[in-house]
Amino acid sequence: MQRLGADTAGWAGEKRPRVLMIHFGQIVNNYLAIKSGSTADQLLRWAGGQNAIDSVGGMMRLTPELIARAAPDIIIATDVGFDRFGSAEKFATLPGVSLTPAGRDKRIYRIDEQKIMYYGPRTPAAVRELHAMIHP
Questions:
Q1: What are the backbone dihedrals phi and psi of residue 100, each rounded to the nearest 5 degrees, phi first?
Q2: pTM
Q3: Do 70 and 36 touch, CB atoms closer than 8 A?
């Protein structure tokens, strides 16, 4: 974590793109946005991103209108939902996603849910993985 702190200090001058982090429920078409103040939001901030959702605490159910209005530069989806589509190109066809900068630019990435939902010994590696997605 100390080395991560030094890395994040070096990333401080980078532009902070708007990132929509989507977590998928076990029910098909149950999309949840990760809000500010959550563990995943903290990892996102350490990685140099800005949460596209301004609400605080936990998660919120997404609609196509909310996705379009959030206008994320990047979408990071958890593994369960991303794998249902199989590629960024197919994910970009979701209602609302194609209307975002992330959908148009195919800046849609997959991450293992366990890496971002909880703190643990792999937290520094997860932050570095997020940073690579946000600042390739």
A1: -100, 160
A2: 0.88
A3: no
The token duo for 20 is: 């929509």
pLDDT at 107: 94
> What CATH number does the domain located at 17-134 have?
3.40.50.1980
Residues 6 or more apart in contact with residue 129 via CB below 8 angstroms: 111, 115
**Do the Cβ atoms of 36 and 53 come closer than 8 Å?**
yes
Lookup: tokens for 56: 């605080």
Closest CA to 64 of 88, 29, 89, 40: 29
E strand or H helix at 67, and its extent?
A: helix 64-70
- Closest by CA position to 60, among listed 31, 29, 18, 95: 31
Structure tokens belonging to residue 130: 């997020």
Give the Å distances, CA to CA, from 136 to 31, 91, 128. Answer: 26, 20, 11
The structure tokens listed for 40 are: 């995943």
pLDDT, tens digit, for every residue of 79-110? Answer: 888 888 888 898 898 889 999 999 999 999 99
Q: What is the mean pLDDT of each run of 10 residues along the chain (136 residues)?
A: 78 83 68 84 91 78 87 92 86 90 94 89 92 89
